[in-house]
Amino acid sequence: MEIVNNKTGRVTRHVSEVLGRLLSGRAGKMACALVLLAFFGTFNASIAAKESLLVNGRRVVLALAPVDPLSLMQGFYMELDFPAGRSIEQAMQDRYGYNYGYGEAGPGERERRGLAVMAESDGVYHFVRLHDQRTPLAEGEQLLAFKIIYGRYRESAQISGGSFFFEEGLAALYDRARFAELRVAEDGTALVTNLLDGSLRVIDKSMLKE
Amino acid sequence: MDIATNPRENRRQIFRRLKKLFLEGKLNDEQYSAGLRHFDILPRLSDWRDFFRRIFSLAGILLILAGVIMFLAWNWQDMPKWLKFGIFEAIFAACAVLAVLRWRHWLGQATLLGAAVSMGALLALYGQIYQTGADSWELFRAWSLAILPLFLLSGGSAVGFLLWLTGSLWCFLYLIGPAGIIDGGFLTSPFASRFLLVQLLIWAGLEVARKFTGVDPHRNLARIVGGVFIFLVTIRLMSMILISGSYGFWHHGQEINYLGSLTFYLYLACQFAIFTFYYKKSPDLFFLTLGTFSAAALAAVILIKNIILEAYNFGGTGALLLCGLLIIGICIAGGKLVFYLRKRISKNRGETAPSKGKLSALALRDWLQESAGLSSDAVAGFFTKDLQEQDAVQPWYMKLPMILGIWLGSLLLAAFLFVAVLDGAGTGGLTSAGVLLCLGGGVMFRSQSFALRQCGLAVIFCGLCFAGALLADDTRAGCMLYAIICLALWGFLRILSARTICFAAALCLFYFLIHYNLYDRYSYYPYYYDVPEATGAMAAAINWTGQLLLAAATAFGLFVLGRERRRGGPAASFLESAGAGAFLFALLQALFSIVQLLMELDRHGVFVNPAPGVCGGVLLGALLLVFVAPGGGNLAAQARLKAAFAAGGLVLAGMAWFSPVSVLGILLLILARRRHDNVLTGMAVAYLAVGVTFFYYYLGLTFLQKSLALAVSGAAMLVLALAAQHLLPEKPAPAAEGEV
What we know:
Largest sheet of chain A: 4 strands, antiparallel
Largest interface: A-B, 55 and 54 residues
Shape of chain A: extended
Order of helices and strands of chain B: HHHHHHHHHEEHHHHHHHHHHHHHHHHH
Number of helices of chain B: 26
Order of helices and strands of chain A: HHEEEEHEEEEEHEE
Helix content of chain A: 25-40%
Number of strands of chain B: 2
Number of strands of chain A: 11
Radius of gyration of chain A: 25 Å
Helix content of chain B: over 70%
Strand content of chain B: under 5%
Shape of chain B: globular
Distance between the termini of chain A: 85 Å
Radius of gyration of chain B: 27 Å
Number of domains of chain A: 2
Structural class of chain A: alpha+beta
Strand order of the largest sheet of chain B: 1-2
Oligomer: heterodimer
Structural class of chain B: mainly alpha
Number of helices of chain A: 4
């Protein structure tokens, strides 16, 4: 028993010494620098990807029903409840039955899917159908990605981030929001860029004067 | 024989003993100063220079980063996004470069923490600009994963703490958010198991990391995480026991209670691991104490559930008596067990022999006889008396749970007396019982035994409760109980003498008398009526009376505690107790004022913001210290000290206007540093946390104003760090050195 203990002790000491040398010396410093640099690089690459989507994405406008709470670090925001989201949930239930995700995914898991939307004469896009690989998009249809979020009792569909951050003090202004403007990439990835009022005008601070 | 073997604790003990001798008049001012110098007790100006430089640099960086985060939360629409990203990336890059360049240096550690915090800010900004969603758990997940390698590589405890905080928030927000709906309390829900499991894994991971890397700061981090885990799992089991139905704990309705059983067996496994690992492999009294008192708390709840709530169906008076006595017994037995474990650990380490080091009691004895000229009989007499009070060196984590248990048991006994003996008693009966209890408690309070003293305090408390019961339909009753509870809470602190508590009590009662007598003239209503808010001149009078008292208490406390070393004897002892009492009153009143505001308890609508009082008090205290008590040392040292007091007073008073509780926390931190006291350090951190939280959520300012206030405070802190570096001497010069 004592031999085993001594052996374990030697191994522990050896590992401890090696780790100590690695972390306290130049290697630790360089590794930390690499981690910081990697974060910086990845972060900026991600910004570039989003900017590319904003420039090249197709403009899509969806109707919404907003609510506004306060985030821990990011300030005031509005939760975006798209009527299209309810159409998705209804379509999912029609296709897969009630509790369509039950048994396949645990609470908290998410799954990316797509839907087809099409613009009406007023330029606002509406839900057409759930999209799958077997049925290609028809003329005028636009692919829009959404996430199914599996809850403990029910599932919900979320388009884009599901929220819109705005400057403190502008909550009353954003009460006018009736539509959301999105930029959508070819694969359906979407970013909310602006909220629009009932006349499809972009809401910004210049409206405070009205 | 000294039980303490930790140099910090030894230093604190010598400080305490020298001060006691000084206050008793056995040492004169010169001898006391010589003793402090000989044992290197008080931080020298050069030590303060290092302390202030580090603390102010760290606080400055963190405040500026907090200001930047506030600015981010303001989400200024007119500011271009490239500029927003530019500012935050510049901060991150500056922190990262400094962290790498000054690797393993204190500045490197501070800036690495800054880089870790700004990573979170950048991720938040990214989500804000590209509207990627407001799920906070995702933000904290990304943040935790980004920090993890930094912690593994640097081993810094501050980054480790941030990692634990963000990781726990990630887990918690995920569980209450997308993972499901919590039924009832969070702790009794099945999902909390995962949260607890994650805490357990982090705790185990930290212990493994400590074993392999030998980085000691991980010990404190492991204590925080392990402490939170034990606390939560104990509370969870207590909740489960209390809500279990008539089928008992092992059944949920007619079905088996799998969750409760699982938690119980997990708890048993943890207790086994604690007593195996922390007793034999890596001795740590902190965990042994937590394990012991967690078991004692569970035993107390089982007793209350089975004896009071079930068997006697809420009504049996004998149940109260039995339960109260058993709980007191269990807690005292727990305390004795921990004390025994502590002795065994010391013995196993070979620490039972008196320490021969420079900071040992033996060294102090020799110095007192040889240098201070005290007779050997006087020294022996002093040490005999002092060693009888040896329980004063028990760590706070040993005392606190014992106190809680004793108080709970005593309150049950008081309830028994009230229900069984005094039911229907008139004024005379209640008053007599109250007086008798106070007298009995007073006798017990004079005992040398720590447990008996606590019992005495609890009994006095019960007696005063009876007196309070006489005024049950009066708002004054609430005030009295409020004041007494304040004192009871503060009685936990070992540094406070009975006299300090008395001074604080006097001030509290004085304040409440003024406050409510003024108010009662305006309107007198029992608690069950809606009380109209005081308005006009009356409200102003009530508010400003309180503010002036708070300012006076803060200034007086600062003045007395700031100058400290003066003539010995009873007068100095009296003054010191009065100063500590005044400072205690200021701390309590400021804290309770904001608690009233947070919880909307102040029905009178007056005196809700302690900012003017604390701000004025800090200014006045600094002025007194500058003009009345410049401290020891030569003229140059005095001038530097005056400049430091003036600059510090101005900055802290400015900050107090925005966050009074944080400023009191900073003052407490300085006092803790001076007295080598971990309890005060813990209190200071708690005050800072409460102050910052209050500032973030409840101050009636916009994010922009808060951001500017934080940035200016941070810049001022950095200026103070620079001032400390340039104004205070770098190396001690014994002949001219003055202690602050």
